[in-house]
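Subject: for your reference before the review

Hello V.,

The reviewers asked for a structural picture of the protein, and I figured it would be easier to keep everything in one thread rather than splitting it across files. Below is the amino acid sequence we used in the manuscript, unchanged from the supplementary table.
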Amino acid sequence: MRKNIDLSDEAVKALSIQAIENGTNFKNYVEAKLEELAKTKLPQRAKEGGKKNKKLLP
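And here is what came back from the structure prediction:
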């Protein structure tokens, strides 16, 4: 899925430096970081696609 985001010049510069330090490019570095963040920060229900837990329903 493609999404456009707006970043400040300072953010792009900092992320570019981090990417270089990690031996990759800006695009791949930012994509990997966002994927990592999404996997660690999403509530469990969001990871399951919002499925209802039938055990909790009366």
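For the response letter, the relevant points are probably these. Residues 42 and 48 are 10 Å apart (CA to CA). The chain has three helices and no strands.

Happy to draft the paragraph if you're swamped.

O.
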